[in-house]
Amino acid sequence: MSDTPRPPLLSVEKLEVVYQRAITAIQGVSLSVEEGQIVAVLGTNGAGKSTTLRAISGFLGIDDARVTDGSIRFRGRRIENRQPNEITRLGIALVPERDKVFPNLTVAENLAAPVTRGARRDDEAIYQVFPRLAELRGRTAGLLSGGERQMLAIAGALMCGPDLLLVDELSLGLAPVAVEELMQRLLQIRQDLGITILIVEQSATAALEIADYGYVLENGRVVLDGDAARLRGHGDIQEFYLGQSSGTERRSYRDVKQYRRSRRWYG
Amino acid sequence: MSSRVPRASGYFRTRYDGYLALTQTRLERVSLIVFLAALIVFPAVASAFYLDLVTQVFLASIGALSLMLLTGYAGQISLGHAGLLCAGAFTAGILAKEWDAPFWVTLPAATLSGALLGVIFGLPSLRLRGLYLAISTLALHFVVVYLGGEYETKRGFSTGITLDAPVIGGWTVYGGRVWYYILLAAAAATLLICLNLLRGRTGRAWRAICAHETVAEALGVNVAGHKLLAFVVSSALTALSGALFAYYRGFVSVEAFSLFLSIQYVAMIIIGGMGSLLGAILGAAFVTIFPYVIEAVMLMLPNAQSYAGVLFAVNYAAFGLVMVLFLLFEPLGLVGIWQRIQTYFLLWPFKHKPLSGGRR
Amino acid sequence: MQLLVNIIVLSSIYALIACGYVLIYRVSRVLNLAHGELMMLGAYLLLTTASLFNGNPWLAIGAAVVLSLAVGVMVYVFLMRKMTGEMVLAAVLATVALGILLRGVMVLVWSAQQQYPGQAMGFTSTALALPGGARISLFAAILVGVTALTYLALFVFLRFGRWGVRMRAAGQNPLLAAQRGINLHGVYALAWGLSTLTGSLAGMLIALDSGLTGSMAIIGLKAFPAALVGGLDSLIGALIGALIIGASEVLSIQYIDPLLSDVVPFLVLIAMLIARPWGLFGTREELDRV
User: Fold this and answer.
1) B131–C99 CB contact, under 8 Å
2) Residue B87: which pLDDT band, with cuts at 50, 70 and 90?
3) Domain extents for chain B?
4) What residues of chain A, 97 to 126, have a C-beta less than 8 Å from chain C?
5) Interval C117-132 mean pLDDT
């Protein structure tokens, strides 16, 4: 049975991020990730998923954005508005959406570049998870295929020795087969290496396959959250993100929002 | 909408004509007239030294304004400004020396040579941007200065070319006051040309190119044509100022047109504040007056005589230091400082404007 | 034969200076136009350490080398670090301003006279005889050797050294590098330190060979086309570029016109900018980093 409740590994409370002091990207976003979980953050384009991830990993400064309200706590320590390399040193590694590898370095060099936390690095464990990369050791990263590049990106993040892995839009530009393969790898990473994973995805199907818990973002707010199983069965999710409609009538977006709002008010 | 309180509440324009107007409020108009009157009366009250100083500022302003057009508005970096000044000065000098050409031939000729050179300086801008464009202008500067040096050596003017004062209808142009008014007129004319270019289509095209070239192209702006136009106009004006400089000093030598001079002009627009004609003039004034201030400070130190030999080194060091300080701490330049002073007084007793947007 | 020797010597000078430009550009995409002045500073430092450690020239050299490394790091920490968020052009202008500042300070501290550190340290410059009737001065020969060693060391470091790989990574994708725990400020400071070090070595050797004058900074500026022709982020490029520029300069002085010596590097530069702006071995990048 469960012992005394431990504080979550990552806890985001009422986070608000503003771009260029003018545009609010997310507001009142709260989520928490327990150790050993795989948590999915879903939503359409522009919902604020990547912004949330960037806020956690310290990447906001580049886009002239700031956390203006709320907090992000990792192991109880506040980490919002810190430098990216500080956050990596605390144990969070990000697999970014774009520019995810060092294009003119070889695969082996890509894996040598990251700075490991604490103990010595362990190349072999990583090559165990991604045996394909072991074959490609000498290849220049810019010449890899999309799927291989994504593998290298994840492997690079793992070389930092993180406790929490953030994955931004894994499935972009990849064939469904490749996406599924990578998702399985993520499961393996959680299993073998004991790393907690927070995954941001547009492709709800793929993400909910492996996640334990999920949050749905829309227009910068969390509109829905729950266990993966519950989300998979949820009518709205099925309709709008999984493309499965229950009836012949097509409901409009507005209808659904109304429905949700009334649900929130009236229980 | 009051025309007495300057800009306190923002825009006052109610018609499109308003965009083209030179001054917006009555206060601005009055200040402008007072300022002009002061400029015209100045020679009557000033000593020869200050007269010369202000005249130099006028001359520098022409170059600074043209560089501001090119770099501050059209966004094309140029480190070769001294090369263009050199071209203008040498054109005037060569024509005067070889063919005894009068000034009303040499000045337009200098302007024309500047325009032609502007095409050459501008061609790289069609392929290169930013740093690489700056490098190309730098290289071209060296080529131009080399050609000037070649002429000097080959024709035996190793110390430089002397120019006779220009003659207008039998009357020789000579003397501090005369040059003051000539250069005041030239600077004012340049300012008007710049203002007119910027108020119209060309200025809008340039701003569009500076902001986002691809979008400008997509909107139908002839990017290549306008880039070249910026170079041509800027170079023509600069060459003209070089020729005027040649007549003003009565002497042309290639040593005067060093890389340091190019940097001084770039410093003028940075210290003044990029993207503002007022900034160009303020920057020109600052950089021109700076060496005199340094000299004055040095004279106040004890044992002043021993420093005389190293004055130029102190100048260099101080100039470099000031430029670094401006780049680090005040990237918006003197105009930025001026705007902050204005804002302070306008908003007082409040500290800053309330936040707009991003909040419920 | 003498012509060939001259080409090799001049190219070595340019190459040793050019690798400084490449180091900084490759790692931080900044063009250090103060490199010529920093080079001169190294030579002046040698003059000072030579008189400090009178009688022990090797200690003087060592001290000057260490000081130059420190100067490079300090330039980054106190100036360039503040410019990291800004436009690249602003950073470049900052280096230009630094160069002007250094020029003034150097004259103030050491006077504008020509100096001879070699004499101060008791070295005499002898000329070595080479096959074919050519001659090369001792220090010029040492310079060629130092250049070769420096390039070898840099190649090995960047290719195989742990921090060498990290420097290259930071140059390619600074954001990702920061995310992977690489301390960007540390990497940049290291690049500046190494760059100033190599530049100072060049300055010192030139000064030992033919004396220290104010025109040394111009040599530094002429080496810049060598870096660009080869590709601003390629060490091999810098080597080849230096060879091209050196050969062009020596040959044009010999066969066309001696006055061309100062402008030939820039003519080659213009030609390269027209034909292939990113240089012979450089990575083809978007050339609009303003």
Assistant:
1) no
2) very high
3) 37-258
4) 99-105, 109-110, 112-117
5) 73
